[in-house]
Amino acid sequence: MNFPTLTLAIPTYNRRTKLQRLLNQVADQTGKLASFPRLQVLVSNNCSTDGTRDFLDNLNAKSFDLRVIHQPVNVGACRNTERLHRESVTDYTWLFSDDDLLLPDAITQVWTVLRDYAPDVLRFSFIQPLGNKIPAFDYSQPVYETNDHKEIANLIAHNWKISSYVHKNVVLPPNEPIFHYAYGYCWIWLGWAYAVVAANPNPKLCVISRPLASCDEEETNDGTRFGRAVWAEMEHVFRHPFVLNHAPHLYDYWRDWSYQYWVNSAFDVRVGKITEQFFDY
């Protein structure tokens, strides 16, 4: 069976050092993939001001194919990520945050499952905080697969770290609900996963329980670097018809959760735990 083609899609803004670290990891892993196709790496630079443009323009990628988009202005995190989805032309797209870390053999593991199982969406365990020993998924088999629509909706919503989603590339129609419910709320990768499975009457989702990526040492497990504008709008993603038709409890849960988080954050501002400026991020 032939390997499908794969794009590692990286949105970036003012994280040149961390982006360089990630691309070094990619180079190290792809340099060992003798029997695999060339990995496509697509980076969308959201008008960084820290030398990211020069770094990318001068990067000599030897073990993978690099394509770079330089946004002329900062278009926001959501639209920068969406541009990556639209520009990817391979069979699969793996969205990966510029400040996250690839764990050993991650690319090999992901690509092999894509070849052997051909899922619409692939998930895997993501470690957060760094050093955490509890995997996000703990199935007994190395690769778990399901065609159950409710279970798929729940698994997409579980441990929603941006770097732990790999999806099949499909052409989405202009009236796809993602463009109404997920736009502008920083959760477009979640909405895109629902759009992909909704496009297939009999979708398949696979899960690798083994941890394949991690946050870096600066990331915690409480999400406090994101403010009310992000968390308060998370519920919009779960208005997608795939969710409402197969797992409507997800919308109720995340609506209540995001509201409670907003209230708790407001209290943290009041007592001085976080600043108002941070809260309004």
Describe the structure concisely.
The chain is of the alpha/beta class and 281 residues long.
What does this structure look like?
Strands 1, 2, 3, 4, 5, 6, 7, 8 and 9 form a 9-stranded mixed sheet that branches. This protein is globular. It has helices at residues 16-30, 52-57, 77-87, 106-117, 149-157, 178-181, 188-198, 228-231, 241-246, 249-270, 276-279, and strands at residues 6-12, 40-45, 65-70, 92-95, 101-102, 121-127, 143-146, 165-168, 205-214. The longest helix is centred in the C-terminal third of the chain and has 22 residues, at 249-270. 37% of the residues lie in helices and 18% in strands. The termini are far apart.
Secondary-structure map:
Layout: E1 6-12, H1 16-30, E2 40-45, H2 52-57, E3 65-70, H3 77-87, E4 92-95, E5 101-102, H4 106-117, E6 121-127, E7 143-146, H5 149-157, E8 165-168, H6 178-181, H7 188-198, E9 205-214, H8 228-231, H9 241-246, H10 249-270, H11 276-279
Parallel strand pairs: 1-2, 1-4, 2-3, 6-9
Antiparallel strand pairs: 4-8, 5-9, 6-8, 7-9
Helix pairs in contact: 5-7
Write the element-wise H/E pattern from the N-terminal end onward. EHEHEHEEHEEHEHHEHHHH
Content of β-strand: 15-25%
Distance between the termini: 47 Å
Net shape: globular
Find the count of extended strands (DSSP E, 2+ residues): 9
* SS summary, helix count: 11
Low-confidence stretches: 277-281
Major beta sheet summary: 9 strands, mixed
Estimate percent helicity.
25-40%
